[in-house]
Each structure stands twice: as structure tokens, then as C-alpha cells.
Design a protein that fits this description.
By secondary structure, this protein is α+β, with helices and mostly antiparallel strands. The chain contains three helices and seven strands; from the N terminus they run αααβββββββ. The radius of gyration is 21 Å and the shape is elongated. The protein starts with about 35 loop residues before the first helix and ends in a 5-residue tail after the last strand.
């Protein structure tokens, strides 16, 4: 369904060479969502997120019941202590997990609207900006064409793999659909979608107000 991520062939002493084989031309569809592999990638990710949300909702009552059993006075002091810690963790973490699941699904729906509006195009580079701390997104800058200056800071988020924020190979090129952000400040409002050439995970891109 989703193609394997292209690899940059290492040259002598580990140098990266032959970028032309990596920069696969974007599919020539008027809308990115008309591309069968793009549609399949979106549908796969959306189904996965819906299943994940359903599982967490199904586990809601059993997990609370388990914590309640540990809090029962008859369970003993040790169990009560563990139950108290578990209850605090449950109250803090479970709503956050459910919120993140819902946020991911809403993000996928917004990404679909972008893909149904804009075509894919090949851009030269996605530059990961180091030293900018974010919870589940990464700060990036785009280079739309060779020799063009990088945009201002933007945020990229992978809604299905929050621990894999951006593939490193995107520094060699990516497929891009969406608004063209101002090449100096990224002030243009809107959303965009990124993926590795050949279709990898679909990533959501948004502007970062106030960051130049």
C-alpha cells in the first residue's frame, strides 16, 4: 500500500551521491488525492487512527475498574499506594491519549482537504531546524527550488508516528502539496502536506506565527 522509503546511495567514505535517483518527479495529477497511491496512503493512515481511538475508548472502563480495585480499602496498604499512583497517572494520561487520538484524526481530515485541492510537486529540501523544542512536532524550513532561500520556520507533524517526526531523507527532496509559504518569513497562512518521493507517511505542515 505504502511504498518503501527511498534510500540515498552512499558513496566512498559514506558520502551521499546520485541525488537524481532519489528526487522522483511528482505525479502529474491535478489534485494529489487523485493519485491512487496517495489516496491509499491516506485511507490506510485514517483507518489506523480510527482503530487506535476505538481501542482506547474500549479500554477506558476496564482500565478505570482496575484502578478502582487497587484503591479498595480491602486490597491492603501496598495496593492502595500503587492504586493512588495509578489513579493519578490515569487521570493525567488517559484524557491526553484520547485527545491526541482525536486530534490526529482531525489532522488527517484537514490533510485530505489539502490533497483534494493541490497537486503534488517536487521541492528541493526540507531542512530540520535544530534547537527548537516542541512536544510532538518538529520545526522545519522549506526550499522550494534549487538556489532559493529557505522559508521561515514551520511545524511538521506525523499524526500516526509521533515518535518519527520527519524522515532524514527529506533533506534531499520531498513531494509537497499545499500553500506556498513566504520564502522569508513563512507568514502565509494555510496548510500543506509533505511525503517522501514515492509516498511514505503523510506529514502535516503548518506555519508558525511570529517565528521568522
Amino acid at each position: 500500500m505504502i511504498g518503501a522509503s527511498p534510500e540515498i546511495p552512499p558513496g566512498e567514505h559514506g558520502a551521499q551521491v546520485s541525488l537524481g535517483t532519489f528526487r522522483v518527479p511528482a505525479p502529474s495529477y491535478r489534485r494529489a488525492f487523485d493519485h491512487p497511491e496517495t489516496r491509499a496512503a491516506w485511507e490506510w493512515a485514517h483507518r489506523k487512527l480510527r482503530r487506535r481511538r476505538a481501542i482506547w475508548w474500549v479500554l477506558l472502563i476496564p482500565s478505570f475498574a482496575a484502578v478502582s480495585v487497587l484503591m479498595n480499602p480491602d486490597a491492603g496498604k501496598a495496593a492502595n499506594k500503587i492504586g493512588g499512583i495509578a489513579l493519578i497517572a490515569w487521570v493525567i494520561c488517559y484524557p491526553a491519549v484520547l485527545y491526541l487520538c482525536g486530534k490526529s484524526i482531525r489532522c488527517m481530515k484537514r490533510m485530505r482537504r489539502v490533497l483534494e485541492t493541490y497537486p503534488w510537486r517536487l521541492i528541493s529540501q526540507v531542512h530540520r531546524r535544530r534547537g527548537v523544542r516542541e512536544v510532538y512536532t518538529a520545526a522545519i524550513q522549506l526550499q522550494y527550488a534549487e538556489g532559493e532561500r529557505l522559508t521561515g520556520l514551520m511545524s511538521v507533524w506525523n499524526p500516526i508516528r509521533t515518535y518519527r517526526r520527519m524522515p532524514k531523507n527529506m533533506q534531499y527532496g520531498a513531494w509537497y502539496a499545499g500553500n506556498t509559504f513566504n520564502a522569508r518569513t513563512a507568514e502565509s497562512k494555510g496548510r500543506a502536506v509533505l511525503t517522501l518521493p514515492g509516498i511514505g507517511d503523510l506529514l502535516s505542515v503548518t506555519h508558525r506565527p511570529g517565528d521568522h
